[in-house]
Amino acid sequence: MIQQRGNMDWMLKELADDVPSIHQIVVLSSDGLRIARHGGDPDVADRLAAACAGLQSLAAAVASEIPYSDGMMRLVVIEVDGGFFYLMAAGAGSYLAVLADETVDAGLVGARMRDMVVRIGAHLSTPPRHDGQAG
């Protein structure tokens, strides 16, 4: 895990407060390192961040096969028994992930995630890494 950005806590809490049934929110870098989280267990957040790195890569590979696509992943939604998982591009090299239970308003969580990314996208950008060190 990289150092969590304290100034993001209020943003993530606001998203959780706006959308009932959200269990955990994770902001991660494209290489799968947790930047920030709200709710849930820190170890779960780290595992989610690592899994998201692979998921966003797979989504980008699929997107590149779509004619006229720019090949960039914007949103992945996974629905399973018991809930939903959302992964959204959130700035250069950053992603926003949300775990929610099955009672969540699926449209509302996606819309609020988009609002959050638009409003604070610059705060969610991750500098590229050089020799294992952030920019």
Describe the structure.
The structure is a single chain. The chain is of the alpha+beta class and about 140 residues long. It has one domain (about 5-130): Beta-Lactamase. Helices cover about 40% and strands about 30% of the residues. It has three helices and seven strands. It has helices at about 10-20, 40-65, 105-125; strands spanning about 20-30, 35-40, 75-80, 85-90, 95-100, 130, 135. The strands form two sheets. The chain has a five-stranded antiparallel beta sheet, with helices on both faces. The chain has a two-stranded antiparallel sheet with strand order 6-7. The protein is globular. It starts with 8 loop residues before the first helix and ends with a strand. The model has no long low-confidence stretch (mean pLDDT about 85).
List the helices and strands and how they pair.
Layout: H1 9-18, E1 22-29, E2 34-38, H2 42-63, E3 75-80, E4 83-91, E5 94-101, H3 106-124, E6 129-130, E7 133-134
Antiparallel strand pairs: 1-2, 1-5, 3-4, 4-5, 6-7
